[in-house]
Write a structure and sequence with these properties.
The chain is an alpha/beta fold and 148 residues long. It is built from five helices and five strands; from the N terminus they run βαβαβαβααβ. The protein has one domain: Rossmann fold, CATH 3.40.50.620.
Length: 148
Amino acid sequence: MAVNQIVCCTDFSDYAEVAFQTALDLAKRYGAKLFVVHVLPPVVNPMLTEADLMLPEHPDENLVVSLNDRMQEVYGNRIPEAVDSELVVRDGHVSTEIIRFIEETDADLAVVGAFGLSGMGLVLFGSVAKRIAHKATCSVMIVRGKLA
């Protein structure tokens, strides 16, 4: 299997950190381009009915700028210059946007943490890793394990 482009999905959780470390290691080994992707989900109040639900068309620009800064601090500063990489922040339905990004970049491999959101978040949004594994057009590595 040729691995030229790797998409690493992050929600800044501990499992996302393990996914990042794994994806970075694979990018170094294969000389692949590494995309680190975070999707800003829509803000949903579970107390609203479908009729009451009105989502803003675009997320707050300050929030997107803040997420870009956080991506650089948490991930970008740790990627060696020798690794071709790109940090990406998108907004929308998390698994849908990740799958769309995988298709747009013609990625060979997606690396995701086994878990991210927990509790009510998992009940409301379902398992992002599961959806990506079922719908992605490339191989998907779901990582578990301890931080290195």
